[in-house]
Amino acid sequence: IPHPRAAMRIEKCYFCSSSIYPGHGIAFVRNDCKIFRFCRSKCHKAFKMKRNPRKVRWTKAFRKSAGKEMTIDSVFEFEKKRNVPVKYDRELWSQTVRAMKRISEIKQKREAQFIKNRIKLAKPAQIERDMKEVESSIDLVAVPVVPKKMQKQRVAASAKKEEAAGMEE
Question: pLDDT by residue (tens digit) across 79-101?
Answer without folding.
Answer: 676 777 778 788 888 888 898 89
